[in-house]
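Table S2 (continued). Query chain:
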Amino acid sequence: MPRTAAAPSRNGAIQQVQTRPAAGALQPAQAGTVEAALQDPAVKGQLARALPSFITADRFLRVVQTEVRKTPELARCSPASFMASMMTAAQLGLEIGVNGGAFLVPYKGICSFVPGWKGLVDLVSRTGRATIWTGAVFEGDEFDYALGDSPFVTHRPGDESDPERLTHVYAIGRVRGSEFPIIEVWTANKIWQHRDKHNKQGQKHYSYRNPEMYARKVPLLQVIKYLPTSTELAIALDANDQAEIAPVTVTVSQPKAPQLPADSQPAADAVDATTPQPQSDPPAPIATISQEQLETIIGAMENRLGAVGSEAFVTEVCAVMQVEDLSQLPADAFSAVMKSLADNAAVAAWGEGKSRQGRQLISPERIQELLSDPSPELPLQPAAMPEFD
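Corresponding output:
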């Protein structure tokens, strides 16, 4: 937008001239928008604390701003959901839109973080205990595989790369010291049937824009189930599940009872006490974490905290969530608990058996905010992610 500025003329008189910002310069953004959040110095500080050492906050912000320019729908998402998705990417050390590592996907005003298949491969490699890779097979490729007790895949790619001519996708994982690889092979038809079964977004699902990326990720996710996990990988998988399987909300309107004439309505004291009164439905049970999520929490807890720290962690989390043991945690608390295990300061406090100091970083108020608001402006802020031994 042009601006006016005072400038002296040749005879010394002051005149108003229009100036334009330099090409590429950021424009002041309206408060409460995604653009304003990206220009907020406080956000840059939060990113600097969340990002691993090999990514700077300046670079990360430039990459995110590029994605917003490439996908204008992101700027129209709620700032809270955009910030939550961006901070998740920062905590995992995955740059948005760079080399297929991770993506920000807008849908109906909500921004979701979706890890790409290359981002998942990176997170598996960081554990230092396993490797994984994936491939796409097209018409004309030489391809053979077998499962069972001696699994193998042989693939000699040809020149074809048209997604319409995709025939198979596969993923192969190897655990350090293991004799045989873990292999998953899917046909293209099976991939699209899987997408159509779980897709709640129709033609706007990102698989229509990036079919090969989506297809490669499906068998990759199956193999990851059998590989050693980490806090970062568990958070990425949980975010992927939330983005892929969107909840369906059904609103049922209750019919209004017919109104009786005033003179025909019985008096309150005339109601027969023996008449059975309608009973209200019992409250629906709260969904708890799955067995797989429980095992993930326990594995990360033991890996990060040891015996003393694990006891302090369980005591603190159960007190905050008001449950008797970890198996009773609400399903939507999984991400919050895993993020607390990624926080170096909280881990250090719990490792010394000091649950009270850990509470400063995973307080009841902050946990309740995460549970009541699915898209908080700033989720728990762990320090740079440590590598596991």
